[in-house]
């Protein structure tokens, strides 16, 4: 479904973010780090549309404090409709976080480092 209507795109993004972070209380309870700040600082770097973009220093500062493998356990198919797991791994690795090859983040299997 392709659309260029800005209102529709904005609505889809809001609904997607609500789906994406609807279960965040469980993530907050189980995973180390500031998951809410991770969402605020990094969401623009991991959403599906667009190319991979080097994350900001603010995003990296938060990523380094979050248990990425723990957060990956909570990735569901609705999240994967909105968030690129490939970009998630790219952001984490670009920020210097070890993401081991073969680890699962949702249905995505982390490839070896290039």
TrEMBL record:
Signal peptide positions on this chain: 1-29
Bifunctional inhibitor/plant lipid transfer protein/seed storage helical domain mapped to chain residues: 31-105
Keyword line: Signal
Pfam families: LTP_2 (PF14368)
Protein name: Bifunctional inhibitor/plant lipid transfer protein/seed storage helical domain
Top-level lineage group: Eukaryota
Keyword Signal in record: yes
PANTHER family in UniProt: BIFUNCTIONAL INHIBITOR/LIPID-TRANSFER PROTEIN/SEED STORAGE 2S ALBUMIN SUPERFAMILY PROTEIN, OS01G0800600 PROTEIN
CDD domains: nsLTP_like
InterPro entries for this protein: Bifun_inhib/LTP/seed_sf, Bifunc_inhib/LTP/seed_store, NsLTP-like
């Amino acid at each position: 479904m392709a659309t260029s209507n800005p209102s529709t795109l904005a609505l889809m993004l809001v609904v997607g973010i609500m789906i994406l972070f609807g279960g965040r209380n469980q993530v907050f309870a189980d995973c180390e780090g500031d998951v809410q700040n991770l969402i605020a600082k990094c969401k623009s770097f991991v959403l599906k549309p667009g190319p991979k973009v080097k994350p900001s220093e603010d995003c990296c500062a938060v990523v380094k404090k979050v248990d990425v493998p723990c957060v990956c356990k909570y990735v569901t198919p609705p999240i994967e409709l909105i968030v690129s797991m490939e970009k998630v791994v790219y952001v984490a690795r670009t920020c210097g976080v070890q993401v081991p090859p073969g680890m699962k983040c949702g249905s995505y299997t982390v490839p070896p480092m290039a």
